[in-house]
Amino acid sequence: MPLLIIGSFALDSIETPFDKVEDALGGSATYIALASSYFTSPVYPVGVVGEDFPDKYLQMLEEHNILTDGIEKVPGTKTFRWGGKYHYDLNTRDTIFTELNVFESFNPVLTGKARKSSYVLLGNITPSLQLKVLDQLENPKFVVCDTMNLWIENNREDLLEVLKRIDVLIINDSEARLLTNEPNLIKAAAMIRKMGPEKLIIKKGEHGALLFQNNTIFSAPAYPLENIFDPTGAGDSFAGGFIGYLHKTRDLSFDNLKRAVIYGSTMASFCVEQFSTKGLEELDKLQIHDRFLEFRELSRFDDDE
Amino acid sequence: MPLLIIGSFALDSIETPFDKVEDALGGSATYIALASSYFTSPVYPVGVVGEDFPDKYLQMLEEHNILTDGIEKVPGTKTFRWGGKYHYDLNTRDTIFTELNVFESFNPVLTGKARKSSYVLLGNITPSLQLKVLDQLENPKFVVCDTMNLWIENNREDLLEVLKRIDVLIINDSEARLLTNEPNLIKAAAMIRKMGPEKLIIKKGEHGALLFQNNTIFSAPAYPLENIFDPTGAGDSFAGGFIGYLHKTRDLSFDNLKRAVIYGSTMASFCVEQFSTKGLEELDKLQIHDRFLEFRELSRFDDDE
User: Is residue B60 one of the residues assigned to a domain?
Assistant: First the structure.
């Protein structure tokens, strides 16, 4: 069964203190699919693009063995465009413009193949669309979901419905606090897990990530990057590495989930080293495993007794 | 040779969202000495208190095998007092008042025993006093130094002199950024190490701590505390656990420094679980080692290949 990914395909215009690009490949489904493609196949992203979406981008995805027949090109429309500018410390960004275009009427209708998927990544789209996808799944075994502050604030009811029907929620620390109105992340995590998802991942940017399940917590370090060129897509790359590794190994034990979190962090670290999707386009498995081992060395310590 | 600790003794008035106390035992030397006393002896703090400093506090320190003859009680003076109020999220605090009192004329003159100390913890006092202490040391082998935003902003030249003469600087992330004007912590760390200290620890509060030496980084997780009652003294407890463990083991290898960072984090986690120094007063070695092992479980993951 393919790894099903629902999300956006976009053309991003990004400015950082180091450089700027226009109409570069972006979108949550793009990053998730690319990151997961290094671990497993078939990867099956579902989304929409406009007539102006360059064929070369589809070709690049296909070269990563990503199935592209779930990416609908709608005649007479333009692709979703996002423009953002990152500040000096790269931790904050301003959205310069958002042109939803064809994405505004995105209505994910799954093909028979997609409906049978048991591993599903619901990228960051409106909770009502995430629910539509959930309704079409015939045998959801492991559903991972991303969301954002906008939906937490404006679409809370739909989001709470989604939370009841997923296995893993991936959000960042400020979103966890926003969702629960609780500043302590450990308490916030317990509250979110009561809302539905058995497993929760809280991403903390330069401070790593936390994985919660039952009364167990795993604290993953952040890769010490001196030069972050473009943070766009880091969260999606994390999600892609995480679910891609689990889709390959089919092992949902806590020990394997930990490894999946580290592979997610690994893919995020590669992502931000270059603009747009460039950091995810030319990797190989050895490189990825080497970085996994670097993560281990970074956080490993022994008892002396 | 004793573990020499220079710092403040204070009477703290603290308000948190949970409770408030007045004239509770505080001060950097207090927390450092208490935390280190669980690992090694003799612990020899040097500081000043006023006539009003309760004997029971000195007795409590002595019950932890801490030598108190370096704590000078100056007749006709009052003890340093600090009042602070923590906000809802406990990450920010307002200083309500600072009464330096006897601490204003603190002039650390070391006895012969203290001058011979090879392991020294320079707590958070003005860099000019830290330099005075350094000038009196006959055989400094391992000097650990704490500082704060106030000295970085107002006493920069003296602080830069101190940095040239110490082995480890312990600061928090915002202080590291302030000292270097560099938002990226990895770059900031390299810049600080060029200022002098071979080893650097950057504390990140709820996100753990980073240890830097040569081209190696160790990322220590934070203990997942649901209830932080009083963050006062967390940084000093960290420093005390760190140097106390190293003073005991006399092993400055990177692997042992990692363990020392975890023991520092352990003591900080105990500290913030209760008001004032209460969290550090009734521990035992087994409890401390158990929490050390919890830290290990929190961050441990294995390769699958």
Answer: yes
CATH no. for residue A107?
3.40.1190.20
Of residues B94 and A36, more confidently modeled: A36
Q: CB-side exposure of A4: number of CA atoms within 13 Å?
A: 29
Is the pLDDT score of A89 beyond 80? no
Mark out chain A residues that contact chain B at CB-CB < 8 A: 88-91, 183-187, 190, 204, 206-208, 210, 217-222, 224-228, 249, 255-256, 258-259, 262, 289, 292-293, 296, 298-305
**What's B88's DSSP letter?**
T
> Which amino acid, residue A217?
I
Answer whether residue A305 is part of any domain.
Answer: no
Domain count, chain A: 1
pLDDT (tens digit per residue) in A123-174: 999 999 999 999 999 999 999 999 999 999 999 999 999 999 999 999 999 9
Q: Where in the sequence is the domain holding A235, given as residue range(s)? A: 3-299
Q: Is the pLDDT of residue B305 over 70?
A: no
In a domain, residue A41? The reply is yes
B81, B65, B236, B216: CA torsion to nearest 10: 160
Radius of gyration of chain B (CA): 18
Closest Cβ–Cβ partner in B204, B218, B298 for A218: B298
Which is more confidently placed, B89 or A218?
A: A218
Position B305 in a domain: no
DSSP bridge partners of A20 = A15
Q: Are B32 and B121 in contact (CB under 8 A)?
A: yes
The single residue listed with the structure tokens 């500043």 is A183
Strand partners, A121: A5, A144
